[in-house]
Structure formats: structure tokens, C-alpha cells
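Exam revision sheet. Question 4 asks you to relate a sequence to its structure. Input first:
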Amino acid sequence: MIHAGHYIDCTLGVKFSLSTLAAAGIGQIFSGIGGVVFGDTLEAVFREASGGTVNKHKLSAAQKLMRSSRVAGLVGGIIGVSFGCTLGLVNLFFVDEQKANMLKLQALEDGQEFEFEVEIDNTINPGLTTVLVRGPDIDGVLASITATLASHGCSIVKLDAGLRGGDGVADTSLHNLLSQTPTTVLEDKFIIRNRATGRAVDNDDLDDLARVILAAAKDPLNAHSLKGQIESLEIENMALAERVLMLQNNLEDRQIKIVKDGDDDKGKE
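Answer key, C-alpha cells:
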């Protein structure tokens, strides 16, 4: 089920923008079908491999109705299912859980990257800069823009994110939230300021800022790649810090010489 769900998530999930839970549900269907098709076959194989020592129970109808028989069957079923599912979780060690997310972020439809619009205005909120981003609803866009603003020295004062219909009205209906048709667009409003000055972004810098925000919206995968690089650098920094500490300790040991006479320290250099 895990491998089936992961394969579906990386194929149909990318093609039709299915959620991971939806892919897991479809994988469960294949798992159930596999159990029905191969259940008796596997049971016969194991019975044959055991040399006939494992056989079906030979309980009478009256014995089957006994409370102890029903409890034993229920407990045995629970233990068997729990053990089998736990054993199946071992497959998680062999599945790239980030692959589907990366593929979904890369799967921009033809022309979709040209549907983004960026508006920047310094007059709406005095002393602050208002950034409005419209475009298709793609996972990772908000994170990508937020990371870009932070890397360019901007602080976010307020953020308003949501879906808008063709008439500009907020559209949160279940149909439009699940639909893949362009009846709704993402509309994110950022109210920002320059982190260094505490005021609105300088007018001369607005054009450059708009271009980097547009680039971030078109390629949300960069934000995830940047996060992965940061995590790798943090791990490397921790390893380097431990190595530096070890070298410092070794250097101090070489700089110290102690000669003892009995229980008293004779000298220390």
C-alpha cells in the first residue's frame, strides 16, 4: 500500500494535483485488491511450506459460537493485523517522501508561469509598502515569496492570503477550492517595510523588488531548495564546531606539561 500510494502520488498526484491523503486512499484500494486476489494463494503457499503442520481449525459449529473462541479469534486478528501493518512500515525507509512534493512544485502547466502579476504601491499605507501578488494557486508560492522578502531586507508587517474569484471576491467554496480550472486565483497581500530603516521601501528599489518577487512566485521550488541547503549547512556547521572543539582540547593538552612527585604537583608549564 505504501509503495502504491507513493507511486500514485508521484504520477497521478502530480498530473491531477491530488493531495497525499488522496493518493494514500487510492493506494489502499490497490492494497485491498491485492489482499483479496493473493490472500488464499499466500495462505496455501505457507501451508505447503510448513509441510502441512499449519492447517485450518477443526472446530465444530458449537465450538465456534463459544465466547472463548470468538475472543481468541478477535485477539488473534488484532495481533496479526497490527504486526503486519507495523512490518509494512519498514517500507518507509525505502521511500523518498519529498519526491512527490518536488514533482508537484515543478509541474507548472504551460503558460501558468505567465499568469502571475505583482503590484507594489507606496501610497496605500503611509510609511509602508503594499505588495499584491495574483496568480494560480500553487503549493509553495507563499513560502517562496516570504523567503525572498526576508532575504532582501524586508520585514512583513501584515499578510493577507486567500483565493479570489474572477470578480475579485473571496471564493472559499469547496468546489472552487478543489477545482483545477482557473476560476479562482491566488491573491496574497504583503504589507512590508525596509528592515534597516523601518520605513517603506525606497521608490528607486521598487522595480527590482517586484522582479525578484515575480521570479519567486514563478519558481516556488527555490524556496524548498534553499531550505534544504540551509539544513545541510547547519549540519555541517555543527560538525565543524565539534571538530574545532576537539582540536582546541588537543592543543591545550599539548601546551600543558605536569610532573608529579608523589601526591603533590611538582610543576605545571
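Marking note for examiners. The mean pLDDT is 77.
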